[in-house]
Please model this.
Amino acid sequence: MEDQVLYLTLAGLFGLFMAWGIGANDVANAMATSIGSKAITIRQALLVAAVFEFSGAVLAGGEVTSTIRRGIIDSSYVVGDPELLIFGMLAALLAAGVWLLVASRKGWPVSTTHSIIGAIVGFGVVALGTESVSWGQVTTIAASWVASPLTAGIIAYGIYNSIHWLILVREDPLERARRYAPLYVFVTVTLIALITIFKGLTHVGLTLTTLESYTIAIGCGLIVALGGRWFVMRIHVDEKADREFHFATVEKVFAVLMVITACSMAFAHGSNDVANAIGPVAAVISIARSGLVEQASPIPIWVLMLGGFGIVLGLGTFGRHVIATVGDRITALTPTRGFSAELAAAFTIVFASGTGMPVSTTHTLVGAVLGVGMARGITAINLGVVGRIFISWVITIPAGAVLSIIFFYLLRFFFGSAG
Amino acid sequence: MAGYISKIFGASPVGPMQDHMDTCYSCAKELTTFFEHVVSGNWDQVESSRNRIVELEHAADEFKRQVRSQLPKSLLMPVPREDLMELMQVQDEIANRARDVSGLVLGRRMELPAPIQKEFLSFVSRNVDAAKKARKSIRELDELYESGFRGAEAKLVESLVHEMDKIEDDTDVMQVEIRAKLFLIEDTLPPVNVIFLYRIIELTGDIADVADRIGRRIQVLLSH
Model:
């Protein structure tokens, strides 16, 4: 295949463009609750996001990337003409990237995940025929879009209620917050480390025994928990603030914890959403290199890194502005609430990443926020806006599909004759 | 650009409701100054005090409108929207009573008969105390939201409500005593004035009643 280099370059560019879009827009939603509750500054948020988005993408992004690369289109239908799949994947990337750009300009709540899946299914149906789409897998993915906000909501409800009963309704909430905070940190870090080790690390080429995995996960949990304890114990009681609002210092304790959930959330977002940008890239690379529609080759690690780099780039160029806007608007979310919501969302997303399910970070987070709301944790949630965010995925899929079909024909028109 | 997730958080009604209560309390508190000037017969001062009450009452209305406008029906809230609206309606009555009493007194240039002056002034200030307790419990609203209207914080507010009950009982006793004194001297006064004096006593005493009703509305919030 003589156009290898061209295809690889295009795939790399489009993938970077998409990852840049995700970094510029989506990360703000993922990090919003941390910044809104004034747990971290924007500069810190950018740093945390850069480090953890990147490590999430590289360490735990493999499964979802595989799903998008070869789980949706059954490539036995393109064996005769592998270029079709290359054009299709390029078109899908371009479609999702452009749609993301347009939608965020207009302020529409779209999901990157939904648009890329819509785009891939779209060109699959039109260019390769209805049979080429693995409908079973697509149905499972669609079901996960309902299940993930629901799961996150239930977990958030549980976490918030535990904080409520262990700390907030007590006579001595501050002492209790200090006592339980390290426990929350331990559980968070251990669980996320476990899922990552069991589900993600194989793509990095690391294989650990079960005992090693548990030891490492629990070790990480303990170290971070002890660090958290040190910070939490050092928090000064601000008597003036406590007179105004009796829970001011309690909230400060949770503000420390929110730094950890912000990291988890960035990690989770990186692990799931990077696949939206590089899943198609990985597909193009494996076809272009071998000239065959080969299913089994592993994802080159540099592709995951390219995705991670793109996200960080987007964050660096536009993220600051978006994060600042978002942070200013969320003031209703105090650290105890933000902690519950972000933690629940991070668990759900990292778990989904582990099982290879491309879910929407935003929808999962909205589900988690609703869970806290159901537990009577938030003074006012605007259900109208919630409805609009959830409806957006219905609109995003056909939009992604139509755009990718157009791009597919354009690409084939310009490059097809050469191949 | 993006960041639509922030839009799902509605504006909290707590701040404006507390501002509203603060303003209503200031309104009631001004009544103390108002009646002191009435007793000393300084009508210029009475009038400026009355203007101050009216201004505060308008300010309270403004907060009330703000709360209403930011509580659309599509909100998910820990306590029903209707209960909050009713609570605010009751808060508003404190300002309205202060406005009515002061308006009536200034409009008719009413003088308080010497024998009941002292009792009436302490009656007014006891009613203002009740309003102050009501303000104190409304100031706990943000803590109540934080703790989900349960536990230690709920108990604290419950005890504030009981204190309000006691003050209200006090004012009832005082009202009976003032009426008794007024009854003894009512033959010496112009009958129309007497009728309005009874009316003033009643309206002033309403402030403690309203404060007590604020307590009831808060208990409704705690019962959810």
